[in-house]
C-alpha cells in the first residue's frame, strides 16, 4: 500500500503501468483497514491502470470508498471480496443512478458469480468461521435488481444463508437468469413457494426454479411432510424440464408417495432409496415404466419391500434386500441370486437374531463372470457360491514406468491371486497366482481391422506374463450407457503373429469389457462400425497443459486436448514436455465428427477457431486448441461448446496450480497415493466417519458417489483405493479437498493438500 500512496502523492500517473507490472497486475489489500487517503490512492491507480486483479477479502473500506471503487471497475479484470463486502457492493450498485453500467461491471469482475456462501472463508481458522448469513428483504431486493441487468446466466450461491419465506419470494422474478446453489433448507423453502393463487404464475415459478437448478432437484436427507410433498407435486405438474430427482433418506412412506407417483414419470433418474416404502407401492411404482418406458433408473435400495420379483423383470429398477426378518436358515438361499445375477449391488441381512451377510457386486463379479446369464435359470438346483471363493475388491496399484526411446512401458509384480487394477491405464488383471506383468501401448494398424469391418475403440495393449497366470483381462472403454445398448457392438482384437481374431466379451460393465485370456500378446478394444457409437456420445476428457512462457512476446500458451477418456495420461504427457499439467476436472461427454469451439475471455488468441473431435488412439496427441494468454495470467475460465453452441464443459483453471511430471513423463502418482492415506490418518475416528458419510453422498464432476456398501467397512487405505478407482487420482485429490472443507478441516487442506498439489 505504501508504494501506491507514494505514486498518489506524487500524482505520477506515468509510473502506474510499471508499478502494476511489478505486482503482476495484482493489488492485494486483503485483511487491511483502508482510510479515505488509501481509497483515493487506490482509485488513482485504477484510473491510470488496466486489467487489475483486486483482492478486497475481509478489507475494511469507508462507505464512500465502495462507491468510488464501483465506478472504476471497468479497469478491474477480477474482483475478490468476502460475502459481507459483496453485499455492500450489491447495495451500492442497486442504489446508484446508472444501474445497468454498474451491474454489468460488477458481475463481469466477479466472473458472473454472486457467492454469498462461506466459500471465501475456507482459509480462516475454524474458530473464526462465520455464522450463517441472514439475508434481509433489502438484501434480496438489491440482489434481484443486480440480476435484472445481467446479460448472461449468473451463479447465485446462497449456501450458508438464512432467508425468511417472504424475503426469498423476492428472488423468483430473476431465477430464470441464474444458476442456483442453495442449502437443502432454502431449497425446501423455495419449493414451498412455487404454488401461488395464479396457475400461470405457479407454472412460471416452477419452470424458473427447475431451470435455475439445472434440471436436477436434490432433496435427499430432507424430511418431506405432506406440505412439502404437495409443493413437489405442483412443481412436477407445472414443468417438463426436471431430469433427476433425489428423494433418498426423506422418510417417505406409501401414503406420502401416493400423490407424487402420478408425476414421477417425468424424470429420467429417480432415487427413492433409504425410505419406508413397502410392497403396497409395488403396482404404482411399476406404472412409472408403463407411462414412460424411457426412464433411465429408479433406485429403491434399503426400503421395506419384501417381494422383489416384479422389479427384477425391469432393468431400470435398482433394489436390494434390507431390514427384513430373515434368519440364518436363509443364508444358502440368499447366495443363489448372486450366481443368477452378478450385477446385484448388495444383499444385506442384519438383526439381533441373524448373522450379518454382505456380498458386494465387485466381490462376486470374478467368481460368477464365467456364468452366462442367458443360460442360467433360477431354480432349486441352482449352484451356490462358496463365500470362501468370493474375491475382494480390486487392489489398485501403480506400476513401475520406464521411458525408453519414446516408448513407455509398465511393470508390476502381482503378489498373488485376485483382481489388480492399474491406476495409470485402467487395465484390470484377474490373476491366478503370483506373477510379473509387463505391458505397454503400441500403435494400431487400421489396415488389418478395416477388412473385418472393425475400428479401434481403445488403446492397443501389448501384454506379457508367464503362462496361465492371467485368468481374465478387463479393458476400460469409453462408451456411455446409451452407446452400449447395441448388442455385439464391442469386441476385443487379439493379435498373434500375423493373424488377428476377435474375442466376444464375457461381460460389459459401465467401465470395462471383460474377456477370457486365450494367450497373452496384443489386445485392444474394437467396435463394429456398422453398429458404431459415432452417432452417440462417448466418455471424453479435456486435458490442459501450460507451456513455458515466451518472455520475448510476454505470452504463455494453454494446449487443450479433447480425447477419449481411456487414453492414459502417461501416454499424452510424453508429447507435452516441458509443459505442466493443469489440474481441473477433465470428464465430459463428446461426439465423433462433431465440431467444438473453446472460449476464454482472457485469451489474446485461440487457434483454431473450431475443431472436430476424433476417436484417435495415438501415437501422437497434438493439441486440439492452443490458447494464447498474457504472461503471468493466474486464472482463466475455459468453456467448450459444440456446434449447436451448447456448453459441454466449463471450468476455472488455476494456472499456478499445476502438477509437474517426472522424468518418465507422468504425474508423480506414487507420492499422491502415499500422501492421501496419511491425510486421512490425521482425522480422528469421528471425523473419519463424517468423511465417509459425505463421500457416499458427494457428487463430483457429474460422477455418482461411492456406494454405501463399499464404504461401510473400508479403512483409510481402502477408502483412498475406492476414491482413486472412482475418480482417478486428480479427482480423488479434489474430492478429498472438498470434503475436508465440509467437515471443517481446512487446516489439512491448507497444509497437506496444498503441499501435495505443489
Automatic annotation (TrEMBL):
Gene Ontology BP, a term: innate immune response
Task: Report the principal subcellular site.
Answer: cytoplasm
Q: Name one Pfam family in it.
A: FIIND
The record's SUPFAM superfamilies line, in alphabetical order, gives: DEATH domain (SSF47986), RNI-like (SSF52047)
Give the InterPro entries listed for this entry.
Answer: DAPIN, DEATH-like_dom_sf, FIIND_dom, Leu-rich_rpt, LRR_dom_sf, NLRP_Inflammasome
Q: Residue limits of the Pyrin domain? A: 667-758
Q: Which UniProt keywords apply?
A: Cytoplasm, Immunity, Innate immunity
The record's subcellular locations are: Cytoplasm, Cytosol
Domain FIIND, chain residue ranges per copy: 390-667
Question: Gene Ontology cellular component?
Answer: cytosol
Where does the source fall among the domains of life?
Eukaryota
Protein name (Swiss-Prot/TrEMBL): FIIND domain-containing protein
Organism, per UniProt?
A: Oreochromis niloticus (Nile tilapia)
